[in-house]
Amino acid sequence: MSLAPSAMPSHSRSTFAPALTASSSAATACTNSTKLAGWSNRRLAMLTIAVPVSETSVSDAMSEVSAGAGGVLLFGSKAPSDLGSRLTTLKSHVPGHLGLLVMTDEEGGGIQRMSNLVGSLPWPAYMGAHWTPAQIQQNVTKVAKKMAAAQVNMDLAPVVDVDGRNVAPSKTNPDGWRSFSGNTTVVSKAGVAYMNGLRAGGVIPVVKHFPGLGGSTYNSDFGPARTLPWSTLQKVGIPPFTAAIKAGAPAIMVSNNIVPGLGTNPASLSPTAISSELRGKMGFKGLVVTDSLSAKAISAAGFSIPAAAVQALRSGADMVMFDLGGNVSSQTSSIATAVTNAVTGGHLSRSRLIDAAGHVLAVRHVNLCS
Q1: Which residue among 63, 96, 120, 279 is least enclosed by CB atoms within 10 Å?
Q2: 83 with 151: CB under 8 angstroms?
Q3: Three-state SS at 18
Q4: Which value, to the nearest 10 degrees, does the dihedral of the CA atoms of residues 27, 32, 33, 39 take?
Q5: Count of Cβ atoms closer than 10 Å to residue 367 Cβ
Q6: Which residues contact 303 (CB under 8 A, 6 or more apart)?
Q7: Interatomic CA distance for residues 239 and 197, integer angstroms
Q8: What DSSP letter does each residue of 286-305 carry, written as one string?
């Protein structure tokens, strides 16, 4: 799956324009949306779920992938040498052979899942301080090419949070060395370079964590966390996301932090953060994914994982993820059931679910009409 920068979706790509044939008329034009309208709510719901799986045992996700899960999220610290062939087998079980988002966290430094296979990158803080944007792009491309060769086509990176604290990420500080810099301009340039490096290597980047975790009160994985006030973020934290969107970012991850000034729910569950700001004012047309809904910040806000998934989709997110641990199969089924029931009960519009599923397909360049 070649995703050279020139072939990446433009902002308009995910609006699913009909195939431009002379004979197509507005009334009969086939689009991904018209095709998805014929899918069951359950199948649409499955497409919005990223299923966690150990990279040493990817076949554990076989039943979920066979049921139409939109992606798998690899966990672990050392990938098996035959990961590529194992993932090829897994992808062969996707209904209709529509491809699969195979995602992992390959940020650099201490956040690398498969450096034994693809090579290692330093912490982003080191890259931001010591490498030019061109060097960042070049080094990331080398890693991305090996990721793509191993059938991993999405990286939950770059982190474009602006946070200059010279510490390892921790329970109290989600960023630290995961951030390129405490300087907004440096982060903007480094983030775009990292993003373009992934794309040049055939991997879909996911820019995170909107609207910026720099200066957060806590790490949302472990409990409720707040970002800097929205008025401050707009000046300091938002420009790197704006730069990434301008450069054609295909996907953005939304954080589980509450944003003072943007409501009382975590951003991942906030229509104000996603639909009004990211989609509306910033004009982002690509895939919106949540951070892990297993985070303690989500349960502290009063949401189970299935209820949070429904709220995230209602708010404008397209894909939800959760952690490895517990019964993954049962959790996946519970999410799909909750989403399906929400549509049936009128709590989630079917058109929003179709829109979300469409974004999942668009980021993989899947055309249901071809």
Answers
A1: 96
A2: yes
A3: coil
A4: 110
A5: 15
A6: 269, 293, 311
A7: 20
A8: SEEEEEETTSHHHHHTT--H
